[in-house]
Design goal:
- This protein is mostly helical and 239 residues long.
- The model has no long low-confidence stretch (mean pLDDT 94).
- Strands 2-1-4-3 form a four-stranded mixed β-sheet.
- The chain folds into two domains: 21-168, Helix Hairpins; 174-237, no CATH class.
- 77% of the residues lie in helices and 5% in strands.
- Strand 3 and strand 4 form a beta hairpin.
- It has four helices and four strands.
- It binds zinc ion.
- Zinc ion binds at residues 199, 201-202, 204, 223, 225-226, 228.
Length: 239
C-alpha cells in the first residue's frame, strides 16, 4: 500500500476512536439534559399551580367581601320592615330581602366550589413539590456522576489525541487537509477500501482504468462518486 495512504488509514483508526469518545461524552450529557428538562418542566408546573391557588384565594376574598356587604344590606332592609306603612312597601322590601338571600346562597356555593378546587390544587402541588425535591437530589447525583464519567473519558481521549497529533505531523499538510475535509463530510470515514472494483464507502463501481491506477498504489486516488480516498483491498480481508 502507498505509504501515505497507510498513514491515513492508521490515522483514521485513531480518529474513529476519538469520535467514539466524543459520542460517549455527548450521550452522557444528553441523558443529563433530559433529566434537567424534566426538572425544569416540573418547576414551571409548580409555579402555575401556585398562581392558580393564589388566584382562587383572591377570588374567594372578593366574594367574602361582597357577601358581608350583602348581609348588612339585608339586615338594614329587615330593620326597615318595622317601620313600613303600606303593604306595597312591605312587599317590595320583602322581595329585596328574598333576592338578597338568594344571592348570598349563590355566593356561598361559589365560595365552596373555589375552596374545593384550591384544595385539590394544593394536593397536586404538594405531590409535585415532593417529586421535585426527589428529582433535585437525583439530578445533583446524576450531574456529579456524569461529570466524573465525562472526565474519565476526556482523560482517555486526551491521550489518544496526543497520539493523533504526533501522527498527523508526519503527513503532508495538503494530504491531511484533504483527509480532514472528507472525514467531516463523510461521517468519519475518509479512507476506504475497494473490493472487487466497488468502493466500500458508497458501494459504487470504480471505472476499470481508475481501478488499475489504484492497484498501482503510487498516488492518492479518490472515488469518483463519493470522493473518499481509496486503497485496494483484496477480497479476503473484507471487513
Ligand atoms: Zn465511493
Amino acid at each position: 500500500m502507498n505509504e501515505e495512504i497507510k498513514q491515513l488509514t492508521e490515522l483514521q483508526v485513531i480518529d474513529l476512536e476519538i469520535a467514539e469518545f466524543d459520542a460517549e461524552i455527548n450521550a452522557e450529557k444528553a441523558e443529563l439534559a433530559k433529566s434537567d428538562k424534566a426538572f425544569n418542566e416540573r418547576q414551571v408546573l409548580i409555579e402555575e399551580l401556585k398562581e392558580k391557588i393564589e388566584a382562587s384565594e383572591t377570588q374567594r376574598r372578593e366574594l367574602e367581601g361582597q357577601l358581608a356587604d350583602d348581609l348588612s344590606r339585608i339586615k338594614e332592609r329587615q330593620s326597615k320592615m318595622m317601620q313600613v306603612q303600606t303593604n306595597r312597601e312591605y312587599q317590595s322590601l320583602l322581595k329585596e330581602i328574598e333576592d338578597g338571600k338568594k344571592n348570598i346562597k349563590e355566593k356561598e356555593e361559589e365560595i365552596v366550589r373555589i375552596m374545593e378546587a384550591a384544595e385539590a390544587n394544593s394536593k397536586i402541588l404538594a405531590e409535585h413539590e415532593s417529586l421535585l425535591k426527589d428529582e433535585k437530589k437525583a439530578l445533583a447525583k446524576e450531574s456529579t456522576q456524569v461529570k466524573k464519567k465525562a472526565g474519565a473519558i476526556e482523560g482517555k481521549k486526551a491521550k489518544i489525541v496526543a497520539k493523533r497529533d504526533a501522527m498527523a505531523k508526519k503527513i503532508r499538510t495538503s494530504t491531511l487537509k484533504n483527509y480532514d475535509m472528507l472525514r467531516t463530510r463523510r461521517n468519519g470515514k475518509a479512507v476506504v477500501g475497494v473490493v472487487n472494483g466497488i468502493c466500500q464507502g458508497c458501494f459504487m463501481s470504480i471505472p476499470p482504468q481508475h481501478f488499475n491506477n489504484i492497484l498501482k498504489g503510487d498516488r492518492i486516488l479518490n472515488c469518483p462518486t463519493c470522493q473518499r480516498i481509496l486503497f485496494h483491498k483484496p477480497e479476503s480481508d473484507k471487513e
